[in-house]
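Figure 2 data, in text form.
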Amino acid sequence: MTGEGAPGRWNVSMVTMVTMPMAEPADEQLLLNLLNTTPVVDGHEQDELADFALARQWLAANGQKATKQEWQGLLDVRTVLQAIVRGEQSPTALAPFLDEVGYWPRATADGLDWDLRAPEGRVAAAKAVIAWDALRVSSPGRLRACANTECQLFLIDRSKPNSAKWCSMAVCGNRMKARRHYYRAGETA
């Protein structure tokens, strides 16, 4: 309240920044699934969110509202998040996706629950951005692009030494190791 005795008015100087709740594990999975919706298959980039029919299934499978607004919001934020994770863009590019987004406390029998509030059609995009930031803070450098330059997928490295390089050891890891082997074998021949 203001010191001038104006009941019901907030003094902006009294507002304090607090640490926000961490992203839900499902939101981390949403983020990774979103980043990985543009895989390269047989040398051609695919887009698993190319049309609304595909996107509706993807949204439902990821526990999100299957609306055209959510789809468009995800398409817009996906490009920015992919560029940020690859180091091609600054996180400041996420600012437009955070307008009117916030957490609100709700008292429960067990304490406080925090509810995400975002404009209609931007909830899934906000969850993805918040999950990216939570990973940036709690697990720096563990969200990264696959080391195979022909692959466009991403991974969250959960290994203890933080040394995972490929989205899949069975696919990209094996390909890269095979290439190195054939390259080395060609040098000695």
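Caption note: Strands lie at 40-41, 44-45, 102-108, 111-117, 143-145, 154-156.
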